[in-house]
UniProtKB/TrEMBL annotation:
This is WD repeat-containing protein 31. Keywords: Repeat, WD repeat. It holds the Pfam family WD40. WD repeats lie at residues 76-117, 119-160, 168-202.
Length: 317
């Protein structure tokens, strides 16, 4: 499925479709503590390179952090309200940040600490942000019901469309295509054609608000997630982009409890063995995934049995 970012509440769960016993790990006191990336809650995190991540928080800052070395590389200040979403263009130093101040700012890690472009036009918080595969267009979505398509070079809004009750929660571009997928508080997932800027497909409304979506690198499969209500109904559904499908029963491989972290709002896989998790109370967590081999308790790792997934936090920042 490639790199998928999903929102979670009190726990982060990793599933597979084969029958495996559940392994449970608790937050370990030997976790390395680095300089915090943000003052306050961390709302979003993504990858800029194999070593660098980008995050946004309630402190209105966009932060570039070397998660392997545990050091802050750059802080961007330009928004006047909290940052809600960050995305990066693969293979470049471009960073885009959305905010409750209704704007999107573009940054370049190699061009100082001032924004190099500003995208203004939404009337409410911007929650959706996606870059076209060729890096020329930017799609934004907001709680104001508007989906907008921008030319990155000129910062001009080329297409706008308002859909009633479409309070956008997330946007992603289908790799190698002209299609954009977005989730909404009206529980409907919509597929847009970026050429005509029209909705070409919708999936039947789910029971709860859809908070996030992502598409596999081959463009065939869509993952969407919901935070449920009152601790119930949290789910992730995988389906073909053009056809409704439910995946069979899923079994939890491992559960990691982050006591005191508050809501866990974003995951960014860095490779097959590491995840970055953003939380409201304790910033960013570097989570390591193991093969479940028994390990010495003094190492601070869980002692999951063979075939189970060993999940542990190794650093916070």
């Amino acid at each position: 499925m490639g790199k998928l970012q999903s929102k979670f509440r009190k726990r982060s769960e990793i599933y597979r479709t084969t029958q495996v016993e559940k392994s449970e790990t608790t937050f370990d006191s030997k976790v390395v503590q680095y300089e915090p990336a943000h003052k306050g809650s961390t709302n979003t995190v993504t990858n800029l390179s194999p070593e660098l991540c980008v995050s946004g928080g309630s402190d209105q800052a966009v932060v570039v952090y070397d998660w392997k070395q545990g050091r802050m590389c750059q802080t961007f200040q330009g928004h006047n309200r909290e940052v809600t979403k960050v995305v990066c263009y693969p293979g470049s130093t471009w960073i885009f940040s959305a905010s409750r101040d209704k704007t999107v700012l573009m940054w370049d890690l190699n061009q100082g600490d001032e924004p190099i472009q500003e995208f203004c036009g939404h009337e409410l918080v911007v929650n959706g942000l996606a870059i076209s595969p060729e890096g020329r267009k930017l799609c934004t979505g907001s709680r104001d019901n508007w989906m907008c398509l921008w030319d990155i070079e000129s910062a001009k809004c080329e297409q706008r469309q308002n859909v009633s009750r479409n309070l956008v929660t997330h946007v992603c571009w289908v790799p190698g295509s002209s299609s954009v997928v977005q989730t909404s508080e009206d529980k409907i997932i919509r597929v847009w054609d970026s050429r005509a800027w029209q909705v070409t497909n919708t999936f039947p409304a789910k029971q709860y608000i859809q908070t996030h979506c992502d598409v596999s690198p081959n463009g065939h499969y869509l993952l969407s997630s919901s935070n449920g209500f009152g601790g119930q109904g949290c789910e992730a559904t995988v389906r073909p982009v053009w056809l409704w499908l439910f995946v069979g029963p899923k079994v939890c491989l491992g559960t990691l409890h982050l006591d005191g972290a508050g809501p866990l709002v974003c995951l960014a896989p860095t490779d097959s063995d590491n995840l970055l998790c953003a939380s409201f109370n304790n910033g960013l967590h570097h989570i390591q995934l193991g093969n479940g081999l028994s390990m010495d308790q003094d190492s601070g790792a869980s002692s999951a049995g063979a075939g189970e997934l060993d999940v542990k936090v190794v650093a916070c920042f």
